[in-house]
Amino acid sequence: MDDFNVWGMPTKGRKRKQDSSLFGGGLGLGMKPPKTQKNPFNVGIGLRSDKEHERDSRRSFGKDQRAQILHQQNNKCAVCHRQLDPRDIEYDHIKPWADKGRTITENGRALCGSCHNKVSHRSRLKKTNKKRKSKRDNLLGLGF
Q: Which residues are registered as beta bridge partners of 14?
């Protein structure tokens, strides 16, 4: 059977390339799934290493890690050094997970609930003040 082009004319011995897209036809109507690249800014010129900027996929400490952290701290709060109540233990990243802190025992600490609230509130306040300061400096023309 002969193949025909868009205008109904037979193709002259040329075989059409089979289109394997979902909708077929090869008309290029934007029906094919887009080709995606993981990181569009990583063009392979060595400016950035993905390994040093990777974030742990796991945010919470595992059961073994929590037990090890508690043992290292002798079951005491890392801030106020009071004995920890098993119902009121909070595990915290020393370098925050949001700032690419790793979820490993060396980066973890056990805190009582009140100390955890103080520490997390203080770190959120620092971030907010830093943003405000940089915004204010940019408005005043001090941000270079």
A: none
Asked whether residue 103 is domain-assigned, the answer is yes
DSSP for the chain, written as a single string: ---B-TTSPBPSSPPPPPP-SSS-S---SS-SPPP--S-TT--SSSS--TTTT---S--SPPHHHHHHHHHHTTTB-TTT-PBPPGGGEEEEESS-GGGT---SGGGEEEEEHHHHHHHHHHHHHHHHHHHHHHHHHHHHT---
pLDDT digits (tens, 9 = 90+) for 11-49: 776 555 555 555 555 555 555 555 555 555 555 555 544
- pLDDT of amino acid 55: 66
Amino acid at 21: S
Q: Which residue has the tokens 């089979």?
A: 18
Residues constituting the chain? 144
Residue 41 in domain: no
Q: The domain containing residue 94 runs over which residues?
A: 63-140
